[in-house]
Amino acid sequence: MAIPTTFADSMETVQVHDKTFVPFITAEQIQARVSELGALIDREYEGLKPMLIGVLNGSVIFMADLLRNIHTSCEIGFIRVSSYQGTETTGKVRNLIGLSENLEGRHVILVEDIIDTGDTAVYLIDEIRKKNPASLRFATMLFKPASLRQNITPDYVGFEIPPAFVVGYGLDYDGLGRNLADIYQLKS
Ligand code: IMP
Ligand code: MG
Question: Which of 63, 105, 118, 167 could be cross-linked to 54 through a Cys-Cys bond (beta carbons 3.0 to 4.6 Å apart)?
């Protein structure tokens, strides 16, 4: 979906830590889009009992809203990616936590808040594939195509956005801002 161009006049800038953020996507626009995504998933997964797997912490709000817009029978689970800087030779080391469900033969939909470089998405897809799901698709609320450095095309996208940093609707700046109902963009 295209970047929305209308913003509620009543929305004001917010301060998160030391930075100022300006209104970007309203809660109303988000809800309308999530409802469309839910309907799409409903049509494509009718009778398949999909397993939605949310990536904590960022996906928590999107997951809850998406779930309420899916009316076909489905299950959910959550995972977390912990990453730390390894040695210079190993680079960034990632670790997947919480994947206890048996995904063999299941129709899995990974649910993320945002795809930026695509590194996390590619890592997650590789890990989930090892569990032999019947199918695997990727849903993300936000997608920054200009930041992408991996060969990945998400299947369900809320909004494609420019590469500026955003907060709200589950997304944080250094831990804060996740509870904002609207999405805000870093003031340039
Ligand atoms: P990646 O670069 O696609 O691997 O994205 C990694 C993670 O960076 C995402 O899951 C988010 O948690 C975080 N991230 C990327 N862009 C933003 C942003 O604009 N706001 C908040 N978090 C972000
Ligand atoms: Mg994340």
Answer: 63
